[in-house]
Design brief:
By secondary structure, the chain is mainly beta. The protein contains two helices and nine strands, in the order H-E-E-E-E-E-E-E-E-E-H. The longest helix is centred in the first third of the chain and has 13 residues.
Length: 144
C-alpha cells in the first residue's frame, strides 16, 4: 500500500470517530495582533488540533466594544450568537447579533464586528479542514 493511500485511509477512519470539545477547556487565542482588532477565540475543531476534517468551529469572544476589523476570506462562514450583543457589518449592511441569532456570511464578503456594552460571544464555523486554511484579508491592510 502506498504512503498516500495509507494516509487517506487513516484520515478517513479518524474522520469517522466522534470528537468532543469543551469551550471551557480550549485555550484562549488571539488578542495580540492589532490588525485583527481585539477579538480572542477558542478553537474547538480544527484538523491541526483535533482529529476532525471538513469543518472548523470555535467561539469568538469580545470585551465591551471589542472589534474584529473588516476583512474577507474565500470560504463562507456562519456566526451563531451565544452571549452579549454586537453588530456585524456584511458588505456595508449592519446586522445585530444576539443570543440565538445566526448569520450566514458569503465567501469573500467584507465583514467586521463591534461588540456591544456587555461584550459578545459567538460560535463560528468554516467549511475547511483547518483554521489555518482560512486566509484573512483585512481591508485596512489592502488600502495601505
Amino acid at each position: 500500500m502506498t504512503d498516500t493511500l495509507q494516509f487517506d485511509l487513516t484520515a478517513a477512519a479518524l474522520a469517522a470517530i466522534p470528537v468532543v470539545s469543551n469551550a471551557n477547556h480550549a485555550p484562549l487565542e488571539g488578542g495580540e495582533d492589532p490588525a485583527f482588532g481585539t477579538v480572542r477565540w477558542r478553537t474547538l475543531f480544527s484538523g491541526d488540533k483535533t482529529a476532525t476534517s471538513s469543518m472548523v468551529m470555535g467561539v469568538a469572544e469580545f470585551g465591551e466594544g471589542g472589534t474584529l476589523l473588516p476583512h474577507r476570506h474565500s470560504p463562507a462562514e456562519i456566526y451563531f450568537g451565544l452571549d452579549g450583543s454586537g453588530v456585524v457589518t456584511i458588505d456595508g449592511v449592519a446586522h445585530e447579533l444576539t443570543p440565538g441569532t445566526a448569520l450566514y456570511i458569503p465567501g469573500d464578503a467584507e465583514h467586521g464586528t463591534v461588540a456591544g456594552p456587555d461584550g459578545l460571544r459567538f460560535l463560528y464555523v468554516f467549511p475547511r479542514d483547518r483554521f489555518a486554511d482560512v486566509e484573512y484579508r483585512f481591508s485596512a491592510a489592502q488600502m495601505a
